[in-house]
Structure formats: structure tokens, C-alpha cells
């Protein structure tokens, strides 16, 4: 089963889910915000994602959460700080994010899975 990480109220995530399910693929939607609220958005998951993809690809620099960070936090960001911020503020993770078991796809790449 494919794991689609995103936010319940994210239009791109809902579109990606519909597209994948429309291709007959089984998709488990995982809300990053709810995962964080339950304390399940842990370092192990983020480290695994960052091992598959560069942490800079995972970091959503277009989000309002990113713009609300102070300039010093944004300027001095490194991998460890980015992963900590993503754990604390899941809206900093680019979405949709698809874990196929073989690869991690981010954003527009998700729509092409299974083509």
C-alpha cells in the first residue's frame, strides 16, 4: 500500500490521492499535522525521508510557516535544524509526499506515479 503524507485540508494532497486511487492504487492518507499532534512524527521517520531525498527538497520554503520563522532561523538552517523544525511544524514539509516503499516522491512527482 502506498503512503501519502500531507495535510487533510491541502488541495494538492487531495488531488494526488484522487489521481492515485483513480489508477486503481491503494493509498493510505497520513495527515502530517495529526501525526505530529500524536507525537508520531518522529526523528526516525524524518531521518528516513531525508536519507531518501535531500532535506532541502523536503523543506517547504513557500509555506506560511517558513515565512513566519525569524530571519536568523532561516539563514542559518542546516539539515539537523530543518528536521527539528519539520517535526515541530509539519507544514514545513513539502507535500504531497508519497512513500511507495521503493522511492519517496515529492510534490508534482506524485501525480506521475504509476504512469
Automatic annotation (TrEMBL):
PANTHER family: ARSENATE REDUCTASE, PROTEIN YFFB. Pfam families: ArsC. InterPro entries: Arsenate_reductase-like (IPR006660), Thioredoxin-like_sf (IPR036249). It comes from the Bacteria. This is ArsC/Spx/MgsR family protein. Belongs to the ArsC family.
Amino acid at each position: 500500500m502506498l503512503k501519502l503524507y500531507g495535510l487533510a485540508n491541502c488541495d494538492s494532497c487531495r488531488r494526488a490521492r484522487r489521481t492515485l486511487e483513480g489508477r486503481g492504487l491503494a493509498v493510505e492518507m497520513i495527515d502530517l499535522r495529526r501525526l505530529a499532534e500524536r507525537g508520531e512524527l518522529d526523528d526516525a521517520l524524518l531521518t528516513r525521508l531525508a536519507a531518501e531525498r535531500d532535506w532541502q527538497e523536503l523543506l517547504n520554503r513557500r509555506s506560511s510557516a517558513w515565512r513566519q520563522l525569524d530571519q536568523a532561523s532561516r539563514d542559518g538552517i542546516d539539515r539537523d535544524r530543518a528536521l527539528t523544525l519539520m517535526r515541530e511544524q509539519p507544514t514545513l514539509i513539502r507535500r504531497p509526499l508519497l512513500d511507495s516503499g521503493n522511492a519517496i516522491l515529492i510534490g508534482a512527482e506524485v501525480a506521475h506515479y504509476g504512469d
